[in-house]
Amino acid sequence: MSVVESPVLETWTRKRPGWMVVARKEFSDHVLSARFVALLILLGLVGVASVYAAAGALRDVAPQTAGISGMFLRLFTVQGDPVPFSFLTFVGFLAPILGIAFGFDAVNGERAQGTLPRLVAQPIHRDDIINGKFVAGLGVIGLIVVVVMLIVAGLGIVLLGIVPTAAEVARLLVWLAAAIIFIGVWLAFATLCSVWMRRASTAALVALGVWLVVALFGTFVVQVAADVVSPIDPANPQTQIENARTELALSRLSPVVLYEETSTALLNPEVRSVGLVTLAQLDRAIVSDLTVPQSLLLVWPQLVGLIAAMVVIFSIAYVAFMRQEIRA
Amino acid sequence: MTSATMPLVETSGLVKTYGETVAVGGIDLTIHAGEVYGLLGPNGAGKTTTVLMLLGLSEPDDGEVRVCGLEPTRSPLAVKRQVGYLPDTVGFYEHLTGRQNLRYTAQLNDLDDDEAEGRIEQLLARVGLTEAADRPVGEYSRGMRQRLGLADTLVKDPLVVILDEPMVGIDPEGVIEMQSLIVGLAHDEGRAVLLTSHLLHQVQQTCDRMAIFVDGSIIAEGTAEELALRLGDGGVAYEVVTGSEDDRVDLVVAAALGDGTEARGTGGRRWRVDIAAGDAPRLVPALVDAGIDVLEVKNLGSDLDEIYHRYFSEREEVDA
Q1: Does the beta carbon of A155 lie under 8 angstroms from any beta carbon of chain B?
Q2: What is the CATH number of domain B234-302?
């Protein structure tokens, strides 16, 4: 052994970035984990069920819909018996579980196993740990969403016998990206919980609790808040519009609403506004489809909002992690 | 061999406070290549805090740190590339095998995959885990984890090895094995080894030099003998076995050597003699002159034990 003769390097630079090493290990851990398999099967089954039902509903009305564009996309937006929701709604409702499942034990899991002190003593930057974990989480979520999407789309092609057009494929790809970012918001939130809460079970409970509140009670809370901020005067119709505007503005604080608006506009080419529309505005409007860039333009603020939500929540988790003591 | 005496770890006036509490109050350390250095102190004395500052994981409030000539807070990656650290509660990914855990460490250290495989194999053999290498760490015993931890710190072939309480929770046989491994790291391979412990005997048996660390400061530093001289009254203890049960070693010693020397019978023909180090050479002649047959004289070592306990108990009194 020639330890003492090896030079002490003034600066030492990595060939492989630290976050990549962490992300690679975390990704393979996720893919080999039971939760990955369980979630893939769960989401796959629900996705297949919803699309199967939608295909049935579409076939029933097939004669009337002949020639209507965006037929393939309707697979994802239409609901049919006996599944009470469309593929889109179900992703909006269930997908946060994905984000929470791959984030709730990111940091506190390392603490519980006692691997954190060993990890931070390796020649990587401290943020490589949380960055790598987040990237791996996004990667595995993307994998699941893409796989489920492919199964569902393939099934749709078989069931309906129609092939998506290039524009439809483009819309689906953008929607996929939006869905992954939406789940990324929840991944970031779960990661934050894993930094703040020492026990993984507490972090999971808190994250799931917040998800339930936002998903189930969000609309009621927003309604109440809107009534307080701009109360409705029965004598003045203008106050009703004000109230509705406030409600819409407040509800857009929720990533769930942003995701729903984005998906609706992306997967329904005929949707031309995600805001408040009066009957007067619709008068004599010609029903026609928007092009992909126009739909994108429509939901650009929502998309940016989703990205911002993910970045802000992850940043809080990042700062909290960087300031934490290594010792438990 | 100038490189062998090169100081690999140097601190001066190192201070760390948490709010009002002073965790580390201005310590000076120098550890050279090829030596095992022991930080001996009770739990909560600031040993782990010191170690974290050496690794750049905790920023000192005052003072300087140099590890391999570098400042850990300025070049954290270069320092951590050269320092192997075994935390006091070492943990592994339970679902991964021992080998996979080491492989991850190798990747984090940016080793080439081929080079790493060979090294990992060699280290697993060295700590006696070749057979268990492909079993999940979840099935490992405490001692096996500790040995895997030692292998883990060596994956990067470090110049400096820091072991925080490496022998806690291992069975006595494992301790002996661990000790010889640790000594080998310094004496045979020329690494600088810093070891913290609250167990005096283990430190005495393993370390070339040691520092007694109490309440955030080093109260004494040196070899075991030096410490005894400096800290105690310079006393040494001998066990003397005489030829007959009627011998009165205590009286002879009191008469011939006077103050500072004390003997008491420990049963049968055995006596324990506490004597000033300077007077030690006169002990046996004095006994022989008095007509006592000296069958055996055994050096019981310094009274470091007692010193150590005295400092610890003083500390407990302060706490109470």
Answers
A1: no
A2: 3.30.70.250
pLDDT at residue B119 greater than cutoff 60: yes
**Domains of chain A: total:** 1
Supply the pLDDT for residue A4: 45
Asked if residue A12 is part of any domain, the answer here is: no
Contacts of A190 (CB under 8 A, 6+ apart): A99, A100, A101, A102, A103, A104, A106, A203, A204, A207
Nearest to B75 among A11, A113, A327 (CB): A11
Domain residues for the domain of A219 are: 18-275+286-323
A326 touches chain B (CB under 8 A): yes
Query: How many angstroms away from the CA of B78 is the closest CA of chain A?
Result: 5
Q: How far apart are CA B191 and CA B158, in angstroms?
A: 7
User: What is the pLDDT, as a whole number, of residue B2?
Assistant: 42
Does the distance separating the beta carbons of B58 and A326 come in below 8 Å?
yes
Q: Is the pTM higher than 0.90?
A: no
ipTM: 0.85
| CB–CB contact B75 A8 (8 Å) | no
Q: Where are the domains of chain B?
A: 3-229, 234-302
Domain B3-229 belongs in CATH node 3.40.50.300? yes
Distance from CA of A119 to the nearest CA of B (A): 8
pLDDT in tens, B251-280: 888 787 777 778 888 877 888 888 877 777
Asked if the structure places residue A1 within a domain, the reply is no
Whether residue A328 lies inside any domain: the answer is no
Q: Got the DSSP string for A229-280?
A: HS---TT-HHHHHHHHHHHHHHHTTSHHHHHHHHHHHHH-TT---SS---HH
